[in-house]
């Protein structure tokens, strides 16, 4: 499990989060994240985004405005390879 909830993270979800090579259970709830959820993320359970009122896009029912769709953040993510 990768529990990043209640950490006061703000801004957009980094595109690079989708590059994690393993499939953890992710929890991003109750932060201050905003903008569109990157389309290539493998995390499709809407409950992991609860409490981020400014997030939009699938899997949430809130559609994004054109301005929200243009927010892109690229941050390198280290992903160890387990055998």
Automatic annotation (TrEMBL):
Protein topology in the membrane: Single-pass type I membrane protein
Membrane in keyword set: yes
Keywords: Glycoprotein, Membrane, Receptor, Signal, Transmembrane, Transmembrane helix
Transmembrane segments: none
Gene3D superfamilies: Ribonuclease Inhibitor (3.80.10.10)
Subcellular location: Membrane
Protein name: Uncharacterized protein
Originating organism: Brassica campestris (Field mustard)
């Amino acid at each position: 499990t990768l529990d990043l909830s209640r950490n006061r993270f703000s801004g957009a979800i980094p595109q690079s989060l989708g590059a994690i090579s393993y499939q953890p259970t992710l929890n991003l709830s109750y932060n201050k994240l905003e903008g569109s959820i990157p389309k290539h993320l493998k995390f499709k359970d809407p409950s992991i985004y609860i409490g981020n009122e400014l997030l939009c896009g699938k899997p949430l029912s809130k559609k994004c405005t054109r301005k929200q769709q243009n927010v892109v953040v690229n941050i390198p993510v280290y992903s160890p390879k387990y055998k």
